[in-house]
Write a structure and sequence with these properties.
It contains six helices and eleven strands. The strands form four sheets. A five-stranded mixed β-sheet has the order 6-5-7-9-8, covered by helices on one side. By secondary structure, the chain is α/β, with parallel strands linked by helices. Helices cover about 20% and strands about 20% of the residues. α2 crosses α6 and α3 packs across α5. It is globular.
């Protein structure tokens, strides 16, 4: 079951305006093209791996995200949402790059297994593998984030629109495991949208500790709108940098699986997919993170996103939206109430008008 935003969304918009610190160190910064995020950080852990180089959000990013969540929460309180049976289907495309021979890319032959892993991690969403492309091109093996080679690769291979997940598996320089774009970025640069991962960090790959499929889970979490659990604003502990109330704060990224670690007054969320722990340690998104992904999806990634600013001037062709074409308000009393005990959420069910 999944919460589906009704036409009241439009009215809402119009009406309102690491184990230890020494295990991770900054080794360099790159200027992030013309995006509004902080420069990318390339942080090496004790295994000399750079876990993720998705840029951390700026204060402006966090303010925008907070407004999106405020609108979403208000719509739920006002019963301006209705429940829809079934998952949100995300058309998914995997692009395998290699230099000399196809099996050089370690994800080759394991594509559906990798999709099954992220499907298990993201309840309410179903990643539907539409196509696998295989490209032999030495210029794209390896690549750097924000490089001309990355731009050329994505321009040549990307499929779909704002709701389509494109995953690029190639070799990355410096033992970087992956990076992603955020939902808010789509409108400014649709062709750049997607996730890039190191091919040996896929399920069954040779990258020790990071070969159970959750490098992709982590990066797709960013693509769905989540920040790192350890991100802190200017105030440090107490600043709730990831803006999710039910993820415990932590002062730094964790490596390995440091059970019982406390860095901000409560247990660090070492099992959360948005920390930096080993794949074997990760096993959860919280209900607050799920709600945030829902809000970001309908604001920026749904086939007809709420945010006008996230619609590029030349929108790629899309199939008709599944948004119901009516403007009636839900009834005052729900027909039934259903609970999802995995997420500890209960939602009133309002039937669509005939």
């Amino acid at each position: 079951m999944f919460i589906f935003a009704l036409a009241a969304i439009a009215a809402s918009i119009l009406g309102g305006d690491v184990a230890a610190h020494e295990d991770i160190r900054s080794v360099s910064n790159h200027d992030h093209r013309d995006h509004h995020h902080h420069p990318r950080e390339f942080l090496k852990d004790r295994n000399h791996v750079t876990r993720c180089s998705t840029p951390e959000p700026t204060n402006e990013d966090r303010q925008k995200a907070a407004l999106v969540m405020d609108r979403w929460n208000k719509m739920q309180m006002d019963n301006d949402v209705a429940e829809m049976n079934g998952d949100i289907i995300i058309p998914t495309y995997i692009h395998l790059i290699h230099d000399t021979y196809e099996a050089q890319n370690e994800v080759s032959g394991k594509e559906q297994e990798q999709i099954d892993i992220i499907n298990a991690a993201f309840p309410g969403y179903s990643f539907d593998l539409k196509e696998i492309t295989v490209t032999q091109k030495s210029e794209w093996w390896p690549i750097d984030p924000d490089s001309q080679q990355e731009l050329e690769m994505k321009a040549a291979l990307r499929r779909g629109s704002s709701d389509a997940l494109n995953i690029y598996y190639t070799d990355l320089k410096g033992r970087l495991l992956g990076y992603a774009t955020l939902p808010v970025d789509y409108g400014g640069n649709p062709m750049n949208d997607g996730v890039v991962c190191l091919h040996s960090a896929g399920v069954g790959g040779t990258e020790n500790y990071y070969n159970e499929g959750h490098v992709l889970t982590h990066e797709v979490g960013h693509w769905m709108g989540l920040f790192h659990t350890f991100f802190q604003g200017s105030e440090g502990c107490g600043d709730a940098g990831d803006q999710v109330e039910d993820t415990n704060e932590e002062a730094e990224a964790n490596v390995g699986c440091p059970v019982g670690k406390v860095s901000c007054g409560s247990l660090d969320p070492i099992n959360n997919f948005m920390d930096y722990t080993y794949d074997s340690c990760m096993d959860e998104f919280t209900s607050g993170q799920k709600a945030r992904m829902d809000a970001m999806w309908f604001e920026y990634r749904a086939e007809e996103p709420v945010s006008e600013s996230n619609r590029p001037s030349e929108m790629p062709s899309k199939k008709p939206s599944v948004m119901p074409s009516f403007t009636l308000s839900p009834p005052k009393k729900p027909v039934s109430t259903k609970c999802n005990f995995k997420w500890k959420l209960c939602h009133s069910h309002f039937p669509y008008p005939k």
